[in-house]
Task: structure prediction
Amino acid sequence: MAGALLIAVRAETDKLIPLFTIGVFVGFTISQVGLVRHWRSERPPRWKRRVVLNGTGAVMTALAVVVFLISKFLEGAWVVVIAIPALMYLFSRIEHYYAEVAGELRFGKTPPPPRRRQSVVVVPTTTVSVLTERALSAALSMGETVVAVAVAGDEEECARIKDAWEDWNTSVPIEVLLDPQRSLVRTVLRYIRSVEGEDATITVLIPLIVPRKRRHEILHNQRGRLLEAVLKSRTDVVVASLPFHLHD
Result:
């Protein structure tokens, strides 16, 4: 922004003096008007004298602002005319946004006590591997019900995944959903929507590979990152990730 100001005044820094002067007097005016409102609401001893003092000061500094704006408008004061209202509008919108958020979160009000709900942990998977084992082990320690969800492009692939799961002989059931495009994101969303009506907290545990070198990160976890982003934007489920570090 400092660079933009220099460009606006064509690097003639003398033209920025009115900008500073007007900014200072605007600050004086606003602060003294605030003090007038403060004295009128609090009404301490001799508050009327204070109102007159700060009110007079506010009028004088406001007149100074008007004089500078008129006399120095083409010498840089026009920047203030644009910048200050824009900043005040920006701050007002930010305050309004935070007020809306506070209302949505019910700040200052006592919420109902927390209650325990059934926990369902969903683990997206593709094949049986050490990564799958680590993810399911973590999921079993997180909730009472754990379900693995996989996607298959056709019936043959679906049968192959189920056979591998049965040969593994794990206690965790697997749901293999058909999708011709093999979209893991669409598959997991479909499964979550099928169980969302239950009175349960749903957690999706996404296993992620942490490679040895940072440049290899682009080769892993693309679907997992996309799934995490979509779940956070479209559902109310708890999204957790389990890092699996590749070692030398």
